[in-house]
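Revision sheet: structure tokens.
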Amino acid sequence: MRSLFRRAKYPDFTLPGIKVYGCTGQGVVRRVQGIDGESCIRCGTCCRKGGPVLHQEDKSILLKGYAGYQHIITIRKGEPAFDPVRGALRPVRRELVKVRGKGKDWTCCFFDEKGASCAIYEHRFLECRLLKCWDTSGLEAVIGRDTIIRADVINPGDPILQVIEMHEQECPCDEAEELAAGLLRGTDREKNLAKLAELVRKDLAIRFYAVSELGLREEYELFIFGRPLFQILSARGITVRPSPGGLKASPPELKTFLNTAFKNE
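Predicted:
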């Protein structure tokens, strides 16, 4: 793994022609227009529930520089995420890219709390354009359709794609979720905990090398690798801590695990 990183000539990767810069923070005032007796009152509820998932037609927004890698996050295949159609937490079946939240909150990073407005409203993403809280049919029609993955918005042949592939092979989310589910079943508890700790170690090691040796900007990490595994496991009540022999995973409290568990279909 280390030799691959050292051979790679990692550029300051950007999309062709993209200018990566942050939002202005000024916000764009939205006119409230009535639609069939309904209207947006700019309460911010939709924006606070999380940013949109990106679709193929959203790539132009990135290319033109209205949003950049620092504004998006990858939801990896197998990672637990809220399914708006079923209204439940479920593992995603395909990699997704969506707009990041603010800090530990999923509130869209482009939402201006003070002005209750969107910093890129004139250039907002597809799901934001379609969303009407009083009529969600337009949004529901595109959920899960023509969504993008990381490779869609990274230059072909960029060495970082090799690192992403290695990361997926060495510490896949679906394997971590399967091991976590094994804890609930009570099968090979100590073995599963040890495997989870090893997955977390690999995840952190790859991130460290990408930043320290390849020059990956830290603000791009969540787009390139998604959330760290220890954070995903923590939401399930599984903690991973340093120990004299390395990292050690601790099992969740049964109540916590049951509250976050879901059934795969």
